[in-house]
Amino acid sequence: MTGNMVGERFVLVSFGESHGKCVGAVVDGCPAGLSLSEPDIQKDLDLRKPGQSIVTTQRKESDAVEIMSGTFRGRTTGAPLMMLIRNQDQDSRAYDAIRNTPRPGHADLTASVKYGGFNDYRGGGRFSGRITASFVMGGAVAKKLLREQLGIEIIAYTLELGGLKAEGFTLDDARENRYTNEVRCPDPKLAKEMRSRVIETRGKGDSLGGVVECVALNLPVGLGEPVFGSLDSDLARVALSIPAAKGVDFGSGFASAGMTGTRNNDLYRIRDGRITSETNHAGGILGGLSNGMPLSIRVAFKPASSVAAKQRTVDTSKQEEVDLVVPGRHDPTVVPRAVPVVESVTALVLADHAIRGGFIPPVLKPVD
Question: CATH number for the domain including 350?
Answer without folding.
Answer: 3.60.150.10
